[in-house]
DNA sequence: TATTGTTATACTCTATAACTATA
DNA sequence: TATAGTTATAGAGTATAACAATA
């Protein structure tokens, strides 16, 4: 085992490695499909708050509006979300899931739960919930 | 507060947000300098294991050899690490820190500790160490 | 044959600046 | 003037494949 030096005491380093491990296993889980972490995030928020504007969804997920455009285009092209102009503010788009989008959300969620169970098998249920609560304290954007 | 749906229960999501928050504050902390998370990682490992080959340093950090090349070039150009051919295996490079590299490692470490203290001010010392241990269980590459 | 470092390449993520249409 | 979405662009991270030199 190679010594890491002071790096090994830094939270930022371990966050990067753990996040990267999750991201890579997520990608493997959805290889040969268009699903990615960030696309699932959009589906989940739109499902929870149908009719929300594109910009608000981006804000909830910590995504810049400029970067949201291609993501929404992708999901619309895949037939997973519908984008309609808000009749009360014609600058804005209201997003909602199509039936295919709802189905995809639920299918993907089941796969993601298996992926997380696999990646987190060394953590007890309590540890897992402790971890989520500690992470929420760091990024500060919790919905509760 | 906007509801996130099932996303809010997923460890992968919170890892991504927390890691991203740390990465962005790190970048701000070292704005106007060439220091980045990954460059600090290389300096730290090389300092802990001087003489190690480029490939071994990459492996310890979870970096592909192909991507390591530019990082080492950058650190050599900055005068922070020395790259000498290993006389026992002339394919390999032995890496070590220059004096400037050692100085930079220690200066940057002090700044990183302040950055982490700032970002993690809502966590107790115990929570912080719990977090690191849980993250180690996920990525599995610990040096102890 | 296998390994070390290298080059070339490509895709994703993320950031900024400037534009348009609406408010 | 300000805001929602858009376009263009650029830097960083990370992945693969193929190559030269050496083992």
Describe this structure in words.
With 144 residues, chain A is mainly α. The first copy, chain A, has a single domain, classed as Arc Repressor Mutant, subunit A. The first copy, chain A, is built from six helices and two strands. A two-stranded antiparallel sheet of chain A has the order 1-2. In chain A, helix 1 packs across helix 5, helix 2 crosses helix 3 and helix 2 packs across helix 5. The mean pLDDT of chain A is 96. The interface between A and B is large, with 64 and 64 residues. The structure holds a DNA duplex (23 and 23 nucleotides).
Please name the defining characteristics of this protein.
mainly alpha, globular, 6 helices, DNA-binding, two-stranded antiparallel sheet, 144 residues, homodimer, 2 strands
Compact summary:
The structure is a homodimer of 144-residue chains. Chain A has 144 residues and is mainly alpha-helical. Chain A has 6 helices and 2 strands; from the N terminus they run ααααββαα.
């Amino acid at each position: 085992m190679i010594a890491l030096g002071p790096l090994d005491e830094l939270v930022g380093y371990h966050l990067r490695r753990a996040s990267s491990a999750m991201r890579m296993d997520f990608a493997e889980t959805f290889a040969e499909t268009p699903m990615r972490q960030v696309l699932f995030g959009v589906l989940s928020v739109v499902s929870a708050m149908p009719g929300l504007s594109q910009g608000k969804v981006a804000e909830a997920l910590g995504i810049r509006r400029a970067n949201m455009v291609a993501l929404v285009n992708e999901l619309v092209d895949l037939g997973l979300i519908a984008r309609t102009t808000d009749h009360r503010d014609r600058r804005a788009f209201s997003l909602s899931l199509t039936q295919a989008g709802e189905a995809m959300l639920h299918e993907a969620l089941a796969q993601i739960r298996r992926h997380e169970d696999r990646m987190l098998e060394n953590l007890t249920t309590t540890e897992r919930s402790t971890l989520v609560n500690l992470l929420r304290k760091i990024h500060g954007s919790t919905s509760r």
